[in-house]
Amino acid sequence: MPVLLDQLRRAVGADHVLTEGDLTAYEQDWRQRARGKALAVVRPASTDQVAAVVRACAAAGASIVPQGGNTGLAVGSVPDASGRQVLLSLRRLDQVRAVDPANLTITVEAGCILQNVQAAAESAGFLFPLSLAAEGSCTLGGNLAANAGGTQVLRYGNARELCLGLEVVTAQGEVWDGLSGLRKDNTGYDLRDLFIGSEGTLGVITAATMKLYPQPAARLTAWAAVPSMQAAVDLLGLAHRHLGAGLTGFEVMNQFALSLVARHYPQQRVPLWQDTPWCVLLENSDHESEAHARALFERLLEAALASGCVTDAVVAESLSQAQALWHIRESIPLAQAEEGLNIKHDISLPVSRIPAFVAETDALLAANVPGVRLVDFGHLGDGNLHYNVQAPEGQDAAAFLRTQEDRINTLVFDAVARHGGSISAEHGIGSLKAAKLPHYKSPVALQMMRAIKHALDPKDIMNPGRVLAAPRGHE
């Protein structure tokens, strides 16, 4: 497609159309589960350039794979192996366009690193609460495309709840300016929510207006040992009653997950894990004072110890101690990667059903896959578990994935369905789960989703094969 490549070079500059050299950072996903081949990696620096690229690709019939930080876990942002797809990297769209203190909003471009959005908000005296382990490399556009969650969804909601407006380049190369900072706008269909969570299959998010919040006067973090998952759920109920809206984080981690951190990162001192099957990490954000926050925390932990849902606990005495505790939690995925290839499940369930799901599915996997190791952790406060599966000790992990992944996925997803849950909470569907989605999504819902896709992207050039698998009879 030499004509298309020439058009792309005119649109963004020859230096930003990459066709040669090592393109691994763009063509291989973060988990190294897939490696594709792009026709070209195109790096626009403005919304107008993105629109020009999309128009050129639409005219040539070339499909587009939008990409932010390439930190996704569902293989949704790398090209296929055809060598005919254009990889559209948004990393150069990285500006903070505006902060509106009175409206409590920040408007940023899609390629802005999440950590930089947090820093810009903090420098203006505000909090941008979206926080996740990859925040040093993931981009806001990718967070919105996957409707990212993270550790503070319990209080502030996921990316969708934090977003007030979008700027989007459509599949026809037109620009929709929906960067409203309005909290009320009842003038028809909510186009913003269509694009959030669509994983680049409907259009390209180029900028967003996001909510800001006042900085809390104090943040306290506690680490508690709990005897069971039911005890963790009971502790969550106590935390809601004692802390109210101040409860901004509630993470659960099983013993094996923490053992991997202790094994692969011995410099991190993991508290309490050896003598309990589960640990919980809690955060209390208080808008009054640290003394008030600590008094509430102490009353909560006293009640929890008295009821038996907590067997031991520590409260961070400094910001550095709190950061160290959160670093342990955020190191679990990295430690699991160090242990070897694994099967990830990003699931959501009603919180009340989680203890029964874990007990049932743990036993089911143990019976069907002797020696299987379960790395179970996640955002219990909002019902999102990362229910991950590691190969038995000493078994070849790559062979384990080849022979067992589909079977294990079916066992886990069927159990999720029995308990009224979802097979994807915050990582998206991508290509990894696209073939599975029809088994767990209502046919009516899928029909409406396909209708929306066809209406907005009739040529199917926007990230094809992601979220919605190709219909039978089509490649």
UniProtKB/TrEMBL annotation:
GO molecular-function term, one example from the UniProt record: FAD binding
SUPFAM superfamilies noted in UniProt: FAD-binding/transporter-associated domain-like, FAD-linked oxidases, C-terminal domain
Cofactor(s) named in the record: FAD
InterPro entries named in the record: FAD-bd_oxidored_4_C (IPR004113), FAD-bd_PCMH (IPR016166), FAD-bd_PCMH-like_sf (IPR036318), FAD-bd_PCMH_sub1 (IPR016167), FAD-bd_PCMH_sub2 (IPR016169), FAD-linked_Oxase-like_C (IPR016164), FAD-oxidored/transferase_4 (IPR051264), Oxid_FAD_bind_N (IPR006094)
Domain FAD-binding PCMH-type: 34-215
Pfam families: FAD-oxidase_C, FAD_binding_4
Biological-process GO terms, alphabetical: respiratory electron transport chain
Keywords noted in UniProt: FAD, Flavoprotein
PANTHER family assigned: BLL6224 PROTEIN, D-2-HYDROXYGLUTARATE DEHYDROGENASE, MITOCHONDRIAL
Family: Belongs to the FAD-binding oxidoreductase/transferase type 4 family.
Protein name as annotated: FAD-binding oxidoreductase
Species whose genome carries this gene: Ottowia testudinis
